[in-house]
Structures are given as structure tokens and as C-alpha cells.
Amino acid sequence: MAKKQEAEKHESKKDETKGAMTADCIFCKIVDGKIPSKKFYEDNTVIAFLDINPAAFAHSLVVPKLHFKTIVDGTPDQVGKTFIGVKNVTEHMKTRLKCDGFNILINQGREAGQIIEHFHIHVVPRFKSDNIRFIPPDHKASDAELDQAFNKLK
Ligand code: 5GP
Ligand code: ZN
What we know:
38% of the residues lie in helices and 16% in strands. By secondary structure, the protein is of the alpha+beta class. The protein has a domain at 25-130: HIT family, subunit A, CATH 3.30.428. It is globular.
């Protein structure tokens, strides 16, 4: 196939994907610059910008430029490169903010709290003195419960 045809085929495939999956997606609009954001990092695969409803100071979102909904829907390459973006963003934040740690979180699926159906990874910088606590339920599993889960997973 001639190079130009190949490029056109690729473009139309890209557009089809966009038309079908992303017309109303807020994060696609942020990626495209149609909705403003406080974007502070960009590479070939992802952007990172401040969350408008932060759980803590400088809470940020790492968002792949290509629309897919969850870690299961993305290809290994897309997901892997998104995590490389997370690594670069945490290094950048550590240098600039001098933070002491991070909470790095994915809400996957509506039941797990995913509101925006475009894959994203929350990166929340943490400081010794920030007094924020993300507290999981205080629950010690019984042996039976651990066995039940293990038997399903192994
Ligand atoms: P989810 O619950 O889907 O994992 O998180 C979506 C996140 O996106 C929320 O923390 C929310 O505050 C953030 N968010 C939603 N809409 C916008 C927006 O238009 N701009 C920015 N910067 N963040 C947004
Ligand atoms: Zn999208």
C-alpha cells in the first residue's frame, strides 16, 4: 500500500475511534485543548494536569492522549507508556514540590468510583505535615476468607 494511502487509512481509523468513543469525553477535550487545564507535563503518550477537585495540594491526573476506558481496555503498550508517564510526573513533582511521598490511585469502573470514562491515574503528592489520611476499613481477614479469595485467584 502506498505510504499516503496508509497514512489516510490510519487517520480515518483514528477519527472513527474518536467519533465513536470520545465526542463527549471531558478528558479528550482537555487533551485536544478544547477545555482548559493546568497542564504541566506532556510526552508523546500522556498529559498531566491539576485535578479541579483536589484531595490534597497539587493532586494531579495522568491521562493518556488516546481514549480508552480502563486498564483492561488499553493495549499493554498504551498502559505501559501511561505508567512511564506516571513515573516521570512523580519525579517532576518530587523535584518541584519536595514532597515526601505519593498516593497513586486508579478508580476502575463506576462501582469503584470512576466518574470520567477515560483512563486516568491520580497522583497525590504527600507531605509529612499534611495530616491527610486515606483510611482503609479496619478489617483483619479470617483464614477462611483468605483461603476463599486465594482459591479463586490461584
Ligand atoms: P475519577 O473519580 O473518575 O477517578 O476521577 C475523575 C477526576 O477528574 C476527579 O477527581 C475530578 O475532580 C476530575 N475532573 C473532572 N472534571 C475535570 C475537569 O474538567 N478538569 C480537571 N482538571 N479535572 C476534572
Ligand atoms: Zn476520552
